[in-house]
Amino acid sequence: MTTHSRIETEKPVTVTNLNLEPRGRVFPSPFLWKNHTFYQILPDRFSDGREAERPLFDYEHPQQYQIKDKRAWMEAGLGFTGGTLKGIRSKLDYLQGLGITGLWLNPTFKQRADLKTYHGYAIQNFLDIDPRFGTTQDLRDLIDDAHDRGMVVVLDVVIDHTANNWFYGPDLTGIIEDSLPYRYEPPYSFGGWRSGSGQPIPEIQTLEDGCWPQEFQNLEAYNQCGSIVNWSNPDPMDPNAEFRRGDFFDLKKLNGYHHATLDAIIRCYQYWIAVTDCDGFRIDAAKHIPKDICQQFSFGIFRYAQSIGKDNFLLVGEITDNLIGANYLSLFGSIFDRALTAVLDINNSPNLLAGAARGTGNPMDFFNRYGTDNDMKRYVQTGRIHVSILDDHDMSCRSHKERFAAHNNTPHHHWQSAHAVGIQLTTPGIPCIYYGTEQAFDGNEGSHDYSIEPQRFGEDRYIREDMFGGPFGAFETTGCHFFNPNHPTYLRIAAIARLRNGANAIGRSLRMGICYPRETSFCGYPFHIPGAGELFGWSMVLAYHEVVMILNTNGVESRGADVTIDGSLHPPGSKLQVLYRADWSDEQLKQPPTDETVTVEQATTDGRAYVRLNLPPAGMVILG
After folding, report:
1. Are strands 514-518 and 545-552 parallel, antiparallel or unpaired?
2. Is the distance from CB of 623 to CB of 547 less than 8 angstroms?
3. Would you give the distance in Å from CA 339 to the centre of its chain?
4. From 82, 315, 321, 394, which residue has the greatest number of CB atoms within 10 Å?
5. What are the angstrom distances between the C-alpha of 529 and each of 351, 541, 561, 618?
6. Rg of the chain (C-alpha set)
7. Non-local CB neighbours of 67 within 8 Å, separated by 6+ positions
8. What does the alpha-carbon distance between residue 54 and residue 50 come to, in Å, rounded to a whole number?
9. Side-chain half-sphere CA neighbours of 504 within 13 A
């Protein structure tokens, strides 16, 4: 039975006397966040709820819905295309079938009506939902429906900056400007608020003008330093570094050291917890927020959440620097110095994961993080402090914007996309799947036509494709949707996720076990950790249970090997059940057979236990 809480329609305009009482039920926090599998959604690009009116894309005949006007398609990618909160709500069956138990929603807060900030990171009103996405009630209904299914929802929040809500004065150029280059001091002058139509005005007159709530209409709320030019600093923790004081391009930097401003930021997001019953925040641009400011925000949010019955509210930060990430997590300091509970693992890990999955990199470059020989590796093994990422909406770790599946023309590329996610689902961490990955979306900036747009601009758009049949469809299409639960990639991710989500020893081992890369032997060579393009194995071990994963990292050739397993748990002659195999039929992937086994053998050289396997190109097997 669905439980919906009614939300008042009147929008607050100030944080003074803001109603922070929970609206309706309060869904309790998960005890362990790593027990969940997340799915990242860009609301504008995911669903408008009208897919039944459009044909389903045929991945075997991709030219069928190919665009006829490349210019129109490219232009569509730079603006709002029509995805909504109600659309997301209509796809919960699809997501649950994939094995998703948590949603990460990119920002849905009100953007400027005169700008095309479809991504949601340029907020004009921190106390309202953008009408292009829907209403506050729509967001609450979505979260209520998710909670009824046992799913959790994390909202993407921006505490570092506002939209381009005001202009700089004529300090440098003699005219009013959207943006000026960074300077430490003195602050630039103020050139006027931005009206709802984008013009400079001296005073805010409507809810479409300037920035809301009223507390962000005080100029002391902003640094007024201009936009960041130097994105690095010799001391990455320096609170006065340019990348922590300047505007994010033309997005105006908030001054967290102004007490009333920080208090207003905290109260705005406490309000969203009360109103929506969300379960956590993904904090945008956390690297650009001084640690002490991030600490104060997180403390205010976490303690409020505890006060209403959410005892383990998630606060995960976007940080593209491992040293800064470790410091904000206070891994080697006091728990009282902690500014976040987890970070997105986005520095270089997506590249290492991609290389391991498709055989273009040494798998140990990725799997080496799972050790027990130093404190950092032991932290990573807990699976509590990092959200595992393969693709996301920024792909900041790659020199060119592209998804994992881009430029992959191998015969089993759908399997490779599934098994890259399979690595996420069978190693320590909080796995997160980017929307469209389960349909092998291959968005990349190679789609940019420089004869139409001569400059490299807005390249992020190419990894933010429409999934619902909008004007900026994936694979350079329009008018067809991609919600195919029988797609080869979807079926294989769902089958692996089903194992991970299980309440049995298999599921618990995959979520909470210790990861051990396994030595292999092939062609008579001694057992060793294999390199790129070979059969690679790893185990998740929890007490007396071992789950073994073997992946053929070669996408074009079959591979065979003897794969080491734990002999104390599996004596020679015993059998391991095949829990997943990539070359199963669609029906077997949905209803796995229970009678397939592999016999454990013993090496004559050193007595170790092993299993012998031969896998097709890009094949994968899970044993337990």
Report:
1. unpaired
2. yes
3. 20
4. 315
5. 20, 18, 11, 18
6. 25
7. 73, 473, 476, 477, 478
8. 8
9. 8
Decide if 420 contacts 390 (C-beta within 8 A). yes
Task: Tell whether omega for the bond before 187 is within 30 degrees of 0, i.e. cis.
Answer: no
**Cα gap 120→85, rounded to integer Å:** 13
Nearest to 278 by CA among 410, 419, 85, 407: 85
Contact 26, 310 (CB under 8 A): yes
The 8-class DSSP code of residue 314 comes to E
Going by DSSP bridges, is the β-strand pair 514-518/152-157 parallel, antiparallel, or unpaired? Answer: unpaired
Say if residues 613 and 598 touch (Cβ distance below 8 Å). Answer: yes
pLDDT tens-digit series, residues 326-345: 999 999 888 889 999 999 99
For residues 113 and 400, give the distance between their C-alpha atoms in angstroms, rounded to a whole number.
30
Helix and strand totals (H; E) in the chain: 16, 23
Q: In sequence order, what are the beta bridge partners of 212?
A: 125
pTM to 2 decimals? 0.98
Kindly write down the DSSP assignment for every residue of 255-269, as one continuous string. Answer: -TTSHHHHHHHHHHH
Contact assessment for residue 84 and residue 138, using Cβ atoms and an 8 Å cutoff: yes
- Name the strand (E) or helix (H) holding 304: helix 291-307
Report pLDDT digits (tens) over 526-565: 999 999 999 999 999 999 999 999 999 999 999 999 999 9
What would the two tokens of residue 551 be?
Answer: 């992946």
Task: Count Cα neighbours of 508 within 13 Å in the Cβ-side half-sphere.
Answer: 7
Residue 54: Cβ-neighbour burial (10 angstroms; 0-12, 13-18, 19+)? middle
Contact 467, 46 (CB under 8 A): yes
Which amino acid makes up residue 235?
D
Q: How many CB atoms are closer than 10 A to CB 177?
A: 18
In degrees and rounded to multiples of 5, residue 575 shows phi and psi of: -125, 145
